[in-house]
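Notebook, p. 212. Picked up where the previous page left off. The plan for this session was modest: take the two constructs that came back from the sequencing core last week, fold each one, and keep the raw output in the notebook itself so nobody has to go hunting through shared drives later. Recording the first one now, exactly as returned: residue sequence, then the structure token string.
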Amino acid sequence: MKCIRKASVKHVLTSTKRAELTRSFEEEKVQLEREIKQLEFQYHHAQKKTPSQMVPSLKEKFDHEINRRQEKQQSLQFKMDQLNHLTEGSELFFEMTDVLIDVEVGSKWVSAENALTIVVKDGVVHEIRESENRET
């Protein structure tokens, strides 16, 4: 019989992973910059077609969207700065996932309270850990 269980996935920070994350953050920042420029263009285009009494609300909507993207850019820059301060070998939490566990008669039962962690290093599963959560 198979059971579904939650597991956290962590990646070991290596020079390869650092470069991959940095490249990903940079690409995302460039994409956000493109979106900001596109929104500015759309605003100026829409401003010409909008009655003057509606321009302030139009500007407010566009400013809100531009600010959201600028905040995302700042967040990405913060993540990049933090990434540069981490030492190689650090474990970075990436996601929670569901895993299938084989259960047979006579198998050792592991409580769902015990945390299951999958550690990935350079794209390969490096370790699977099961630890007890003791919150008492």
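Okay, moving on. Second construct, recorded in the same format:
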Amino acid sequence: MTGTLLTTTTHQRDDRLIVHVDGEVDLGSAPRLTAALDSAIAAAAAATAVPKAIVADLTSVTFLASAGLAALVESDDQCRARGISFVVVLAPDGPARRALEITGLLTVLTVTDTVEQALAHQP
């Protein structure tokens, strides 16, 4: 699989940056996810007031390999170090949620079912 199977888009909504991820996150495409999250973290860290939260919307992810899981954990660590909230949105029955369940990351990362829930989340 190649990185062409993954797209990311980032937009701001209120005081949150939302990184929408669509497709397969595997070894070849994980650097694209990492770059999108790193860019959002840098923007949030540089902001004086807003945004101070990042929402990673993975509801459209159809496959999530260990490289993608590592990118999420690293982003969460970077956000915590900078005082930025990091919330991952996963479809309730989606493959990305299953990957986090299997690895135990559902108890490590802040996870919601919808972007609306993530936007309402207060750290």
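Notes on construct two before I forget. Residues 3-112 form a domain with the Transcription Regulator spoIIAA fold (CATH 3.30.750.24).
Flagging for discussion at group meeting.
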